[in-house]
Amino acid sequence: MARLIDDMKIERIKDATLEMVVANGYGGASISKIAKNAGVAEGYLYRFYSSKNELVNDLLFTNVDELANKIERLLDELHSVWEIFEHLIRSLINLSQQQPDRIKFLFVLMHDYNFNLIESQRERIFELCKRIKEIGLEKNQLRKDVTEEEIYLMGVAYPIQFINLRLKSFFNNTQLTDKEVDEVLTLCINSLKQ
Question: Is the pLDDT of residue 4 over 60?
Answer without folding.
Answer: no
